[in-house]
Amino acid sequence: MEEPLRILEFYSGIGGMRYSLMRAGIRGEVVEAFDINDKANDVYEHNFGHRPFQGNIQTLTAIDLDKYGAHAWLLSPPCQPYTRQGLQKGSADVRAFSFIKILELIPHMLHPPLLLFMENVVGFETSNTHKQMIEVLIRVGFVTQEYILSPLQFKVPYSRPRYFCLAKRKPLSFQHPSCNNQLLWIPPSHLMSRNIMPKDGHHFSDEGQEEFDIFCEPIRNYLETQTSYNPQPEYAGVSFCVKCNVCTVNFDKNTGDPVINSSAPEDMENTNIHSDNIVEEVEGAKEDKIALDKYTVPISSIERWGNAMDIVYPDSKRCCCFTKSYYRYVKGTGSLLATSEIINSKPAKKLEISSLKDLHLRFFTPRERISTSHHT
Ligand SMILES: C[S@@+](CC[C@H](N)C(=O)[O-])C[C@H]1O[C@@H](n2cnc3c(N)ncnc32)[C@H](O)[C@@H]1O
């Protein structure tokens, strides 16, 4: 059997990339993570029991990186230089410096990586940093595939298109070389299953994203506590293990008993630990039911901002991206959930402010927000 991939996680934050790696079932070990932010590193350490290297990635040298003998690099560099709301300074923004700097180290390494996976906001693909990145990657012998994908395309009711670049160092090659050197808005698996080849001249854009709604699971499957109108037993949704984010638990529709599905990859520690973990979590969530009151949206906010709120229902199949200001502001920071017994799917007509007050709007809890966004 081939040795597990040795992986470096740059800009590790709270570990979203590492969770994705685990969910994808890749045989690999994150040999080091790097982040400058101590709070993010606290959370990462809590999640994975390993504290990332704390420092500026810009100061790393080829010798430093060679020591890890890594096969793959995961990178999610700061997105502020490219966001639509920002100044869009691209490579002139100091926050962009470290990214190009580490790519430039590759030709100076004795053991350069074979695989790269990079994530950023939509807008990166038209930036000068993108141009520089592609130039460096070609120069050091990588072939690339680029995508703009949203969780909606993977059945998750969360609208959050993001840019992804996959790169393999020659002589490695991609399974579908027809997708090389172009930006696609659809995953290759979907292309192939529909027998569409990108070289046929099909152009994909986000206009087609609507169609994915029908495949999505409803938001109710991601709620920590089912809302009171739900005819199914409480916690009928699926929960994911906090430890590996892979094991799941469903609840028997008749008895309400938890049914564990331990699907942690073989090389993970005892899967029972994960299952126990989920049950503990869920028991905890049951006890927390009352605590959901603290997520109620104040009537004063509804009166003031009601018209600008993005309201979703347990049967909705999409919600908006949550931002850092969620809870503090209601306008444009993420969706709010209607928990009233009367309406559980979006009404045909826009509701008046007076009716919005009857929807018993609440914010999504932190765990609900993580379980949608970290499926990405
Ligand atoms: C877009 S976030 C990454 C999010 C991450 N993928 C996650 O799941 O949380 C960018 C991260 O890069 C870190 N960062 C930004 N500039 C850095 C630098 N020069 N050196 C090290 N870390 C940096 C930030 O602290 C932040 O946690």
Account of the protein in words:
This protein has 376 residues and is α/β, with parallel strands linked by helices. The strands form three sheets. Strands 3-2-1-4-5-7-6-8 form an eight-stranded mixed β-sheet, sandwiched between helices. It has a three-stranded antiparallel β-sheet with strand order 9-10-11, covered by helices on one side. It has helices spanning 16-24, 38-48, 62-66, 97-105, 128-139, 188-193, 271-287, 299-305, 353-356, 366-373, and strands at 5-10, 28-35, 53-54, 72-75, 115-121, 142-149, 162-169, 183-184, 239-240, 248-251, 258-261, 311-312, 336-338, 361-363. Helices cover 23% and strands 17% of the residues. The protein has three domains: 5-215, 3-Layer(aba) Sandwich (Rossmann fold); 219-290; 293-373, Alpha-Beta Complex (DNA Methylase, Chain A, domain 2). The longest helix is centred in the last third of the chain and has 17 residues, at 271-287. 32% of the residues are buried. Bound molecules: S-adenosylmethionine (SAM). The site of S-adenosylmethionine (SAM) has 19 residues, from α1 and β2. The site of S-adenosylmethionine has 19 residues, from α1 and β2.
